[in-house]
Specification:
The complex is a heterotrimer of chains A (143), B (140) and C (401). Chain A has 143 residues and is α/β, with parallel strands linked by helices. Chain A has helices at 3-13, 38-48, 103-114, and strands at 20-25, 28-32, 52-60, 65-73, 78-86, 92-94, 117-119. Chain C is α+β, with helices and mostly antiparallel strands and 401 residues long. Chain C has helices at 44-48, 53-61, 70-83, 89-117, 121-142, 165-187, 190-196, 204-210, 214-218, 226-229, 250-277, 326-329, 333-336, 345-351, 376-400, and strands at residues 21-26, 29-35, 151-152, 155-156, 292-300, 303-311, 317-323, 362-366, 372-375. The chains are: A alpha/beta (143), B alpha/beta (140), C alpha+beta (401).
């Protein structure tokens, strides 16, 4: 799928809800959405448009927690990163693991390193940090 | 030097433990078994249980999860068990010294008898490390 | 002659050790799989935030020893994406040569381990013996057998000298008959067919659901390869093809890796030919990284490596994200190992080519009693016994005729 086609489909389905589009280069796009729209956008990108979930990056920007979900459209080499901003004091977002199993470890990692709660995640327990790691301490947060 | 320690310098049985390692040191140790270097002709064997081992080769910086395991392994080993830290990470933690998940270099956790630095040390260096250790033991 | 054993799974009868792979079994059958990771978690992403970009390259190199150049290539791709940096042509060829040499040594390493896991220890010795010339070439051109430190933002750190080119060419030519030998030994051997076909199957749907990549995906007929899909380095400039198989079993995964090695040799030879005529700089001499974000990826021997970097214009990254291919591939074992037998467990786990360390700790738990039984070593022994039985059956059949 070409970049323009994907953007058109996004704008058609989510008219008014696309907060921003950044075309960094022909094969690198960034689209911003509100956190509550994330599951629907993920469904479109994965189930309808047959993209592939690559991973998700969580960033503590000091103002908020930013999550970037990266999708690859292999036939054209494009990566679309779905960006969303959530509240830093109590970061919470709907899990996409029920939509795609490959998200399980990805969300667990962001949960333990940044403190994000993924609502309805089937198995939100520690993945990388050892059992005695102190609760409430998130290594990738900027304190 | 004890009779026991003298005896173990005849044929060394080695157990290999990797903590948080990038695997390069591990592969170079295994490489020492392959035909080009052939550790076995020195009577050096890699064994599957710490209880049979005379030498414990440790690679990688020690993570918190690895710390518990390393301590247990050392306790289970029949003494004398000599510890060799293979690779920069095991010797000094190297670039991982500031990491939040690292418990320390090997010598903060168990006593170390030989250090083989390198990233990774070549199989020749690992063999040399073990040979130097044997020579030092024989000198008493 | 005393037997040498690769220490997979130390024996500890009474300890409650956390394992990487906990197989829950009912009799001979694996009914569930628990995977626990975190032993190798070194906090690299956090460390990267306190290092300059030059230092980050050395840091990411050490994410994995076997895929040593894969992470630096993804790193420079990400930074060059961020800064819209053009890399001189000669450097592109050198990058691909180093990457494909790595693929050769990595696949040979895997072949050896896989051979060991099913009881073909001669395969292990041969595969690792023929790996050595590849490592010697690395030492010649980069100065180290592993961790070659060849990559740099905007180019490569060292050139390949004209008088080294014949040596590299000779080495890869010398590998061709070796690959033919492995091809015959693996792909034409009826015992290997009986041992590996139909084992550890991953369907196309599974590949999609787990986001699997690399040979793990290509063996199930999913033709994804970053070198073709999102071209970089010299991959669009030389002639080669993506290798796929359809069955998705362990045999298919082995075939993909063997055939990929032939393609790697093609790519290396194509790049060497170009290096003879393309001169010029090997370094764009990048002075600074502007603010912004960049994404870079590379097709490592195990699959797609993905790096994301965010910069604020200073010489340190604000955020550095690394996603290795095994992160997506290892969970697929929940599909490929479950439902199989314990004698097939080790080779199935190894078939996605995880880090060696991951296969180090395996435990088997009886589902009904909760008691721990076999260790990883026992599983390898069971795997070898299964191969032996198959060999014996073939022998018997021949005698009957």
């Amino acid at each position: 799928m070409k970049a323009e086609e994907i953007l058109t489909r996004l704008k058609d389905k989510f008219s008014g809800r696309v907060l921003r589009v950044l075309k960094k280069s022909p094969r690198r796009l960034y689209v911003d959405f509100d956190p509550k729209d994330v599951p629907e956008v993920v469904r479109l990108l994965l189930r309808e448009l047959r993209g592939r979930l690559v991973t998700a990056t969580g960033i503590d920007t000091r103002n908020n927690i930013e999550i970037l979900y990266h999708f690859s459209f292999d036939s054209s080499g494009i990566i679309i990163s779905l960006r969303t901003l959530i509240d830093r004091k109590s970061p919470e977002i709907e899990s996409i693991t029920p939509i795609i199993r490959g998200a399980e470890w990805i969300e667990r990692e962001i949960h333990e390193l940044l403190g994000v709660n993924f609502v309805n995640h089937p198995n939100l327990k520690r993945l990388l940090l050892f059992e005695n790691w102190p609760e409430g301490k998130y290594p990738l947060r900027r304190e | 030097m004890h009779l026991k320690t003298k005896a173990l310098t005849k044929s060394i049985w080695v157990f290999h433990f990797a903590a948080a390692s990038c695997n390069n040191c591990d592969i170079e140790i295994l490489d020492a078994l392959t035909p080009k270097f052939d550790l076995e002709r020195f009577g050096i064997l890699l064994v599957g249980s710490i209880r049979h081992a005379d030498v414990l080769l440790v690679t990688g910086a020690i993570s918190h999860k690895g710390l518990v395991r390393l301590r247990r392994l050392y306790e289970q080993a029949s003494q004398p068990c000599l510890v060799v830290a293979v690779g920069c990470c095991a010797c000094s933690m190297c670039i991982f010294r500031d990491s939040y998940n690292m418990a320390g270099p090997v010598d903060k956790i168990v006593p170390v008898h030989a250090y083989v630095p390198g990233c990774p040390p070549k199989p020749e260096a690992v063999i040399m490390g073990i040979v130097k250790l044997i020579k030092a033991l024989r000198r008493g | 002659m005393a037997k040498t054993v690769i220490p997979i799974g130390p024996y500890h009868p009474l300890q409650e050790e956390p394992e990487f792979f906990k197989l829950l079994v009912e009799g001979e059958k694996v009914v569930d799989l628990e995977i626990e990771i975190g032993y190798n978690h070194r906090g690299i992403e956090k460390i990267a935030e306190s290092k300059s970009y030059d230092q980050v390259l050395f840091l990411v190199e050490r994410v994995c020893g076997i895929c040593s150049t894969s992470h630096p290539i993804a790193c420079v791709n990400a930074l060059e994406d961020l800064g819209d940096i053009n890399v001189p042509e000669r450097a592109l060829y050198i990058r691909s040569i180093v990457a494909e040499l790595e693929r050769l040594h990595s696949h040979l390493l895997w072949l050896g381990l896989a051979g060991h896991f099913i009881g073909y220890n001669t395969v292990w010795m041969w595969a690792w013996k023929y790996r050595e010339p590849v490592l010697d070439i690395f030492e010649k051109i980069a100065g180290n057998r592993q961790h070659y430190a060849m990559m740099k933002v905007g180019g490569v750190r060292r050139d390949i000298e004209a008088n080294d080119i014949p040596a590299i060419g000779k080495m890869v030519d010398g590998l061709l008959p070796v690959l033919d030998m492995f091809r015959g030994a693996v792909m034409d051997d009826p015992v290997i067919h009986a041992r590996l076909k139909g084992i550890g199957v991953l369907t196309k749907d599974d590949v999609f659901e787990y986001g699997a990549v690399g040979p793990t995906a290509r063996a199930s007929g999913v033709a994804i390869d970053v070198r073709k899909d999102d071209p970089y380095a010299a991959y669009p400039l030389v002639d080669w093809q993506v290798i796929t198989q359809q069955e998705g079993d362990v045999f298919a995964k082995a075939v993909v890796r063997i055939l990929e090695m032939y393609e790697s040799i093609r790519i290396i030879k194509g790049c060497l030919d170009r290096l003879k005529v393309v001169g010029g700089e090997i370094d764009a001499k990048v002075k600074e990284i502007p603010p912004g974000e960049g994404i870079g990826r590379h097709e490592a021997p195990r699959g797609e490596v993905f790096h994301y970097v965010r910069s604020d214009g200073s010489n340190r990254p604000v955020r550095y994200k690394i996603r290795a291919p095994s992160y997506m591939n290892v969970p697929t074992n929940q599909k490929s190992v479950v439902g199989g037998t314990i004698s097939d467990a080790t080779i199935t786990l190894a078939a996605v080519d995880p880090c060696y360390c991951c296969t180090e700790r395996v435990a088997v738990v009886d589902k009904r009693t909760g008691k721990k039984g076999l260790t990883g070593q026992d599983l390898i022994r069971l795997s070898e016994e299964k191969t032996f039985k198959i060999k014996r059956n073939f022998g018997r059949m021949k005698w009957r005729e």
